[in-house]
């Protein structure tokens, strides 16, 4: 008998309950929640405000609507005062120094610590009111977005205390400036589970910007599951070529042979689990099985060229080019359409420390029609009502003169973290 089996055989009652406390807790939670879930199914109408569940438990006033999330993250920090945060009074302050009452002794970054002055300058772009809501926004660079502004909402108060981009983006994704915690997509996967057994619950796409003057590193830890099980980590799909490397079997290896290999591997892993008891062993088994199922589901998913001409009229001709932001938006819609819970799209090069006049128009051109097309496409397919679209970024520090802004809809939850400028749309 192995030392591990000896330990299990002779463990005390106290040791047994200490080792099984989580299982007992899950069992208790299941018994408490099962009646509530049975009272209110996914398609059930909202109960009245006074409705109560078993034992007096009060149900929410409205049933939750969001089933999927598409998070469009602009890596760097789009200039809110040049896009959505209209500040006409800044024209009166042109070339005047930023008052101390605004900065209030805020720390300076290395890039600005050597400046002798901090002059104020208004946006050089044309702002006008858009939609029935009358929002003042940059209609010069975002004419398509202006058409759907009534589907959007803003929050202008989000910030972090981070002074650099890396901890700020980590805070935006995980709720903490210190890495190691699960990201938002992992929590959605953990809390809501999968709607398609043949595709991951959480998928990450990295788009390629037209301008590449100031590309920042995008670390895979931003879609890490942290202390949650590895099955909830984001699965990164490539925007060009095969979405996943080695998704196809090598020549001479038919699906039947691959199936027998996985069955044998499962048996070995089960033996290891029986010996050690590490739950991550079962996570590994599940991931191997998911990879096998994805060999049939991913190739069909990636056939974006099968989209009708109307799709490219909506998203723009850039959607035909693999790797572009428009292309990843089409792919994001195809993922959500097939039941993927959380799709995160990263677009780089928004850190405009220089040449804003040359780079910002190119960045806006990358996103403008594609984002508008995504919203309209989801509406046409009946997906908009239960899909939450987040558009945002994370930037270091805070300043009243460049106040944070995140656009969101009514009725949704707010993600913790820093935002220099962002919006989200939902039904």
Task: Characterise this structure.
The model is unreliable at 35-57 and 397-427 (pLDDT under 50). This protein has 12 helices and 9 strands. Among the domains are: 68-81 and 141-243 and 302-425, Alkaline Phosphatase, subunit A; 247-300. The strands form 2 sheets. A 7-stranded mixed sheet has the order 4-9-8-1-7-5-6. With 427 residues, it is of the alpha/beta class.
CATH architecture of the domain at 68-81 and 141-243 and 302-425: 3-Layer(aba) Sandwich
First-residue to last-residue Cα separation: 60 Å
Tell me which oligomeric state these chains represent: single chain
The geometry reads as globular
Overall strand count: 9
Kindly provide the name of the CATH class of the domain at 68-81 and 141-243 and 302-425: Alpha Beta
Largest sheet: 7 strands, mixed
User: Which residues form runs of ≥5 with pLDDT under 50?
Assistant: 35-57, 397-427
* H-E string: HHHEHEEHEHHEEHHHHEHEE
Q: Looking at CATH, which topology of the domain at 68-81 and 141-243 and 302-425 would you report?
A: Alkaline Phosphatase, subunit A
The largest beta-sheet arranges its strands as 4-9-8-1-7-5-6
